[in-house]
User: Fold Lipoprotein from Haloarchaeobius litoreus.
Amino acid sequence: MSRGRRLGVLACALLVVLAGCGAQEVSRPETAAATTAPATTTERPAATTDAPADDADTGIRYRGDSLSFAAAPVFDRVESLLGVSADPPAEVTVENASSWFRTNATDRPRPTGTGRFGALVGVETDGRDADLRGTPNGATSPFGGVSIYPGDGSSVALEVVLAHEFVHVVQFQRNQVSAVRRNVGGTSTDARWTSRSIVEGVAVWTETRYVETYGLDAPTGGERTTTLYSEATPGTPFRHGQGAYLFGYEYVRNKSSGLDRVEGLYERPPTTSEQVLHGLDPGSEPPVELYVRTIAEGNTWRGSTTDTLGEAYTRVVLENGVAVPTAADAAAGWGNDRLVTYRERPTANASFVWVTRWDTAADATEFRDAMNATFDADGQRTGDRWRLDDVRATTVRPDDTTVVVAVGEDSLLDALDVSLDRETVVLTTNLSAANATATTDAAPAVATATTGPVTAGSPSSPPFVSTAPPPRFAQASPAPQTTTPEPSYVHA
Assistant:
């Protein structure tokens, strides 16, 4: 599949946004949780301004437009299903298309950080706003604000969306969102996806029980989420985001005896997407050891922030080059990874080195073959390098269970050397090496070596600076410290 034909959705780079069942390229307020349901009819709510709806009876008023059903009974039902008591929001804002889709595709900033890495390896972004204007959606802030976008949805579809958002109201009030993030730990891409899978998994399961318990003529949350995931374009941010809802729903449903028993999942959640995808108990199959150190010799490329992408993101990367089942199989042996961002100058575009560690040598082989196939699908191969539009890529295997992927400027690939220091993967960049090997599409200047096991989550070793010329700057990055905000996925 060519890079130009793949369809993706640019996730909003907002730190606190939760999403209900999909991803849509819409910039929401910085503290919002979002949900969508598929459009089922063209029934539209009556337009009013600050409409009270059933305000006298319920205390929940509609602001902006109005919906055809009372909001308070929906909140009461959600409380009953969850077995909790919570304060309802004072109002629900019903938005129109112009306010909901306020970010024009031409105004979107180019991706940076992990988003740029994804774009370089084929996890492409593209707007689908026109396709989503008929789809009901919703968002909830940590402060209890709820917004609904009706689209072309029927009243029953909107009721399900509102039920989903009310789950988030309860979660924020009971500090369950912050609890699961704290207990998953870290701010990496994988940690955030894992946290979201539990938060959204509970909301999707509540949708399912809501439809079943109250006899609504609508798809259950599980059915809807399955459809959205299966129809999502492989290899896109949309699919990565949607996976958190589907696999989170399956995990929560299988690990809890009922919605009134989910509290333990916030306090002892899975800590990796691997555990969510495979239904593993928290604490089982923890990430394998992976230490990565970056050293810059002279005035050359320097590694800075790091991230851990996880098995769920690895699947999406590989879906750009191989069939979906093959991508899932090739990602299944994931043990750990570290994405290091490189810049030649502080203001230059980023290039990347992705260090991956696998459970077995066979798993590493399967991943490298699939990664190479992804580059084959996207670019032109010369020797051990690929030309991907205006960047280059290569893969190298320093030992049986480690595969290193480099993608970015040619000069980084020329300058990069991969070696081992006992249990640490050392990434050294050297300007002299880059100048000596700066031939277009030449074989990589990446030295192969043998690597031992590598770790995430161990305490950082102190930075090493040598006083001998040329200056050597070393940065140890045993645990992910990413400055890239989590992609926020709004329902689609």
User: Anything to note?
Assistant: The mean pLDDT is 79. The first helix runs from residue 55 to 58. The chain has two domains: 12-281, 291-456. The first strand starts at residue 12 and ends at 13.
